[in-house]
């Protein structure tokens, strides 16, 4: 899995107050990541000072939109001015050419998050060192599983230098307090470092020294699936480390949540029999919170198992036809090449590559149709993880499938997994299990059929 960096740093604003250390901060952070961690300089894109216009920022995000896939991670770094509108309750990054108090020239975080939501990268991490950058967050639940498992699950996180407050740019010629803490932590770290560990250390280091409090959390509303980016320290020589065979059994946390679900249902039924209205209301609220956690944990488990299937695919043990896998990889390479050509502003060549990309997508659709891949999905307990892998792979290659469609299909697979595990643990009878599962499978087949129809599979 390759790591990529999109770095934006602005000191020399055209119309806004100039900064002293934003570009230095970006350069220093990129240097330590490429020198001491698993990042290659060839995968770094920088927009500094006059290059960091709104147009250029959006163009680069468009490039990542077409070039990134689930085999890549992306870190977005921003150091510069930020702004927050109290009436709109919106935060903004300030591009180089922006005009003071003219929001039409700003770059709204909501726009940035629309890109983050659409990006197919495995892990996405936004690190923003700007005023009012903490306006971006929503509440989250702390992760407690191992680093190895968290790294396998897709994630979208952000770390900001402050909350709803101005932040320090630091003394001229030095780093900002936020950048200094980030660089020092990365420099002193001697092993793997999860994003939650990094953010906790940054908060502690910065808050002890200056009047600002950084913040680090998952972006729950923008495609976060429960994982974490793991910063892996480089060793003296790059060696392929033999990985231990992963235990494919479901996580204990997921099983505990399923058991808690049925225990809570028993309590609700008991309260209803005794007509305890207040207790019923309280238990139903608890059930709603538990269901939210359970749904997230189900998707996390599907993602862990999807990665396991993907790893088998790489060694030739694929549930998909080999011609599809080969054509899929060819399509991804064409997208990457097209992206590089666009960066060099050779638009005629890029247009031809776009035609090649469309042709390859049609060929992929033909292979799916010819082999009746969607129709052959068994959707039984034994094939569920393979079927989930296939559905995700198909949706990833089709550029016009909307995020809410993907999210809906993920949740339906999650319900199937829920009933499979409930039956496996003896929580429901065979009759309830068969009836519930049959109905959900029918719903899922209809959704997948619509997906196929919308993309020329049939």
Automatic annotation (TrEMBL):
Keywords for the protein's UniProt record, in alphabetical order = Coiled coil
One short Pfam name that applies is Peptidase_C14
Segments forming a coiled coil: 254-300, 343-370
Q: Where is the UVR domain?
A: 322-363
Signal sequence range: none
Keyword Coiled coil attributed = yes
Whether NAD counts among this entry's keywords is no
- Please give the name of this protein: UVR domain-containing protein
Q: Which organism is it from?
A: Flavobacterium jejuense
